[in-house]
């Protein structure tokens, strides 16, 4: 029998690659890029085809599991869900709603069902102890958007398809697939800038895979981008490389920003950033004068010591130079399912409305920083976390001071994990509820269409028929929410609303909810004549997706401040400038600092159990610059002990000029020794946990976001002899 061909979108990273999936006898036989996909035009990376191996991975969980004294044993869905609901509700009845915490991990954002279901479970639990991966990720960017545009979800995206000048800080889209810049045809779009005669400039403390697409790469000292950006703005203001009249029409606070930038001349910021003053002056002029230009920054800024300040300054540079809300510049997408409105409804749109009990860290978008999770579990008193739900998360490997988190998880009264593996985190759960794998469920990128460089929409059907007696993320989450609500004696007002929602969601399912969002969205048939408007039925017929056109000006819809103008002088963020000045005085004398690293063949903590992805050279090594290696008497192949305030790891190292002097690089997501028996492939290439040495107390002050890039460390040889 011949294979049946299906088309769908890969949901592993943010790039939304269209895939052509061949299926025979309900087994995937081939996955490749879909050349007709309206967004990704055939591009795919090795992780897309690896979904076949993930689907078949014998270590992937297929049934609910309960932890017993003699290991994990299979239980029925009914038993597992009843027990989980009852035990969580019992803790809340006895100790109050905050006694149950919840961590929502990255893969939950990559499925429309998981997003809806997890929001609902969060509401049902009614706890303030909610955490998510954004506190190791985009919170500073979200915070800056809230302060500047009055809306946490108003995130500008580079219109990379039409720009003449692409200025990038701390992002590695060639490896990451692009983030808060859903790229589709990643390589094609990155090459496109230069192919059109444009210029691509990159600032990163490491020469990355993206360097190959750029005209110039400059090392920058970790954490110092805010100073560099102020240096660029200094030149723009000083040389009047902007249209003051046009700027005052759309933005407030120009003079305050100008006054601050005045203090940061290129000559002043050159030494602490490591970027020559002449380079700063030249790039400022080129950028300001380019007709269509856009500055963009990502993880290297967001998870640095000055996440909000540097994220804000990237946008400020775009706005001041007139590269905002115009083609080829920084723009707001117009997604078909506009979750911005939903986000506002579920409280995504605020910050600092409450604080964590022990350390007083602020919430962002309704979630507290995950770095405070362990202490909230360890510290007795009212509101101590005793029960915990982990949804698609592996905080032992992904949150700073993972070893402390691991101990805290092991001491909980009750933990339930919704995950496809028994890994470093989920092995501490009393119950593990595994969802169907991605190929067995429908898919729509609710979030990433709203962050994409082009307006498109695509729905994917399941390509594999799931075995009986399985559930997807949405079903598990909604059922668990229902059980928690049913068992609790006095649900909170929010819980009562959630109860009504549970009913509705259950009735509609994830796709039914999507249909509603599509119909109410900007292209929906609620607003357009029925024959023209979009709904799920029409979307289902477009196998390669629907192209809704290039990004278009959205100022009025996305700028929602009281004055209707962008705020260029947000007081909370600008109050952080004195700390930046102290940092600049001290940074050149500081010792070695650690930065992270992503590789195209991994994805955070969970793709190391796929043989085709882990084969080849060891990608978990520490990179050290030759001058540092020589000073410390270290050489390639040596094993080295890396120490920080919180812990140490022993890793293999490689000497390379690809990292800046004074900087060492270690990727996160490795450290699989503890789960070697349940994730056998990952366990055979364990690597070390970078988050055993990142610091849970080293957080950025405005949002409490983890500082993952720029962590002070020391190195020491373990066995200096190079290994054979
Ligand atoms: N040092 C350092 N730490 C970092 C980072 C860094 O750059 N440096 N990056 C941070 C960032 S940006 C992020 S987003 C976090 C990510 O860290 P986490 O939020 O912990 O997420 P992941 O490691 O991607 O995956 C977590 C879990 O999801 C499970 N999973 C995969 N697919 C599914 C699914 O469909 N359903 C369910 N229920 N589970 C699934 C996997 O088995 C895995 O256990 O890490 C952060 N940690
Ligand atoms: N293959 C793969 N793809 C992924 C992931 C993955 O783990 N693997 N994870 C996904 C997730 S969850 C996310 S959030 C995205 C992240 O997407 P990106 O942000 O594009 O990816 P990173 O590799 O974290 O890029 C950050 C860059 O910042 C640099 N950097 C570190 N410190 C500084 C600094 O102080 N200043 C400057 N200017 N640069 C600095 C680092 O060297 C690195 O090259 O990737 C997603 N895609
Ligand atoms: S780049 Fe991202 S979306 Fe595309 S195939 Fe790779 S993992 Fe999937
Ligand atoms: Mo992330």
TrEMBL record:
UniProt keyword terms in alphabetical order: 4Fe-4S, Iron, Iron-sulfur, Metal-binding, Oxidoreductase
InterPro entries: Asp_de-COase-like_dom_sf, MoPterin_dinucl-bd_dom, Mopterin_OxRdtase, Mopterin_OxRdtase_4Fe-4S_dom, Prok_molybdopt-oxidoreductase
SUPFAM superfamilies: ADC-like (SSF50692), Formate dehydrogenase/DMSO reductase, domains 1-3 (SSF53706)
GO MF annotations, alphabetized: 4 iron, 4 sulfur cluster binding; metal ion binding; molybdopterin cofactor binding; oxidoreductase activity
Gene3D superfamilies: 2.40.40.20, 3.40.50.740, ADC-like domains, Dimethylsulfoxide Reductase, domain 2
GO cellular component, one term: membrane
The keyword Translocase is annotated on this UniProt entry: no
Domain of life: Bacteria
GO BP term, example: cellular respiration
The keyword Repeat belongs to this UniProt entry's keyword annotation: no
Pfam families linked to this entry: Molybdop_Fe4S4, Molybdopterin, Molydop_binding
Domain 4Fe-4S Mo/W bis-MGD-type: 3-59
Official protein name in the record: Molybdopterin-dependent oxidoreductase
């Amino acid at each position: 029998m011949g294979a049946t061909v299906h088309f769908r979108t890969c949901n592993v990273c943010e790039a939304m690659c269209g895939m052509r999936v061949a299926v025979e006898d309900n087994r995937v036989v081939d996955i490749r890029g879909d050349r007709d996909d309206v967004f990704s035009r055939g591009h795919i990376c090795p992780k897309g085809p690896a979904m076949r191996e993930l689907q078949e991975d014998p270590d992937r969980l297929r049934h609910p599991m309960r932890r017993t004294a003699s290991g994990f044993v299979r239980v029925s869905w009914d038993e597992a869900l009843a027990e989980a609901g009852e035990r969580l509700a019992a803790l809340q009845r006895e100790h109050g709603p905050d006694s149950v915490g919840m961590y929502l991990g990255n893969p939950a954002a990559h499925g429309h069902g998981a997003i809806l279901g997890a929001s609902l479970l969060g509401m049902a639990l009614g706890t303030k102890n909610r955490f998510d991966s954004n506190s190791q990720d985009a919170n500073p960017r979200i915070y800056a958007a809230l302060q500047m545009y009055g809306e946490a979800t108003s995130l500008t995206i580079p219109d990379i398809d039409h720009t003449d000048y692409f200025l990038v800080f701390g992002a590695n889209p060639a490896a990451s697939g692009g983030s808060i810049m859903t790229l589709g045809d990643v390589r094609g779009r990155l090459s496109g800038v230069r192919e059109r005669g444009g210029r691509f400039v990159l600032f990163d403390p490491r020469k990355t895979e993206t360097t190959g697409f750029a005209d110039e790469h400059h090392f920058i000292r970790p954490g110092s981008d805010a100073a560099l950006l102020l240096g660029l703005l200094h030149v723009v203001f000083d040389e009047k490389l902007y249209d003051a009249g046009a700027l005052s029409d759309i933005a407030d606070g120009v003079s305050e920003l100008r006054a601050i930038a005045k203090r940061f001349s290129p000559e002043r910021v050159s030494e602490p950033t490591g970027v020559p003053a002449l380079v700063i002056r030249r790039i400022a002029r080129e950028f300001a004068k380019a007709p269509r230009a856009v500055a963009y920054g990502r993880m290297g800024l967001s998870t640095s010591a000055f996440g909000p300040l540097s994220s804000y300054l990237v946008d400020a540079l775009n706005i001041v130079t007139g590269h905002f809300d115009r083609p080829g510049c920084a723009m707001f997408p117009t997604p078909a399912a506009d979750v911005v409105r939903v986000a506002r409804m579920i409280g995504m749109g605020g910050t600092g409305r409450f604080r964590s009990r022990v350390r007083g860290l602020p919430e962002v978008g309704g979630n507290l920083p995950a770095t405070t999770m362990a202490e909230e579990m360890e510290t007795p008193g009212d509101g101590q976390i005793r029960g915990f739900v982990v949804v698609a998360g592996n905080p032992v490997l992904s949150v700073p001071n993972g070893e402390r988190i691991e101990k805290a998880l092991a001491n909980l009264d009750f933990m339930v994990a919704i995950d496809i593996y028994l890994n470093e985190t989920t092995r501490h759960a009393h119950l593990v509820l595994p969802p169907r794998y991605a190929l067995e469920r429908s898919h729509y990128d609710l979030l990433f269409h709203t962050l994409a460089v082009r307006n498109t929409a695509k729905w994917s059907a399941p390509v594999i028929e799931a075995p009986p007696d399985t559930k997807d993320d949405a079903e598990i989450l909604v059922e668990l929410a229902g059980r928690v609500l049913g068992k609790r004696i006095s649900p909170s007002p929010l819980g009562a609303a959630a109860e009504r929602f549970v009913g509705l969601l259950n009735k509609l399912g994830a796709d039914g909810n999507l249909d509603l969002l599509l119909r109410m969205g900007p292209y929906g048939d609620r607003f357009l004549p029925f024959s023209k408007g979009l709904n799920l039925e029409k979307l289902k017929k477009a196998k390669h997706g629907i192209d809704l056109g290039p990004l278009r000006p959205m100022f009025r819809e996305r700028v929602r401040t009281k004055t209707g103008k962008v705020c260029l002088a947000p007081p909370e963020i600008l109050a952080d400038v004195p700390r930046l000045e102290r940092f600049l005085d001290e940074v050149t004398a500081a010792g070695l600092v650690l930065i992270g690293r992503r590789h195209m063949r991994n994805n955070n903590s969970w793709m190391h159990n796929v043989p085709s992805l882990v084969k080849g050279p060891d990608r978990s090594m520490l990179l050290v610059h030759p001058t540092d290696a020589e000073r410390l008497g270290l050489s390639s192949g040596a094993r080295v002990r890396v120490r920080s305030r919180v812990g140490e790891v022993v890793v293999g190292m490689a000497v390379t000029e690809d990292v800046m002097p004074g900087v060492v690089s270690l990727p996160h997501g490795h450290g699989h020794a503890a789960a070697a028996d349940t994730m056998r492939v990952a366990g055979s290439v364990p690597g070390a946990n970078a988050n055993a040495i990142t610091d849970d107390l080293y957080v950025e002050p405005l949002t409490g976001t983890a500082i993952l890039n720029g962590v002070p460390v020391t190195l020491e040889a373990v066995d200096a002899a190079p290994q054979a």
